[in-house]
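Might I ask for a little of your time on a matter of protein folding? The record follows directly beneath this note:
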Amino acid sequence: MGARSSSGQGVLVLVAYWVLAGLLAVFYAYSAVLKLVRSREQLQPMMHWVERAPMPAVRAIGAVEALGVLGLLLPPSTDVAPVLAGWAAVGLVLLQIGATTLHVVRGEARQIGLNLGLLVGAAVAAVLAFRLWG
């Protein structure tokens, strides 16, 4: 978990990263498991967009979310290529840009609040990770 700076400010950045990464990891792990194991019928009540999405695409999104979780947590916790945490967060930003675009195209602009919150959270996590390990 070697951050570049051991100053008080560096410690705050490190704590901020881990708090944010932990919150994102919990959300995305839950979302990934749902997309990877549930049927279309089980997903539809909470994710209306799956009604017209091919299930292999839904499963692929779940896999990307799971990889994002692993990328946020494993590299910095093992101190093996910790810069990958920043790139994992960038991947989650891109995922949320796609999700937000999908909702807008479907006329569901009122439902993008969570997506925008996750996008901002992942962007901040990326900035923090690159500041620490980039």
In short: The mean pLDDT is 95.
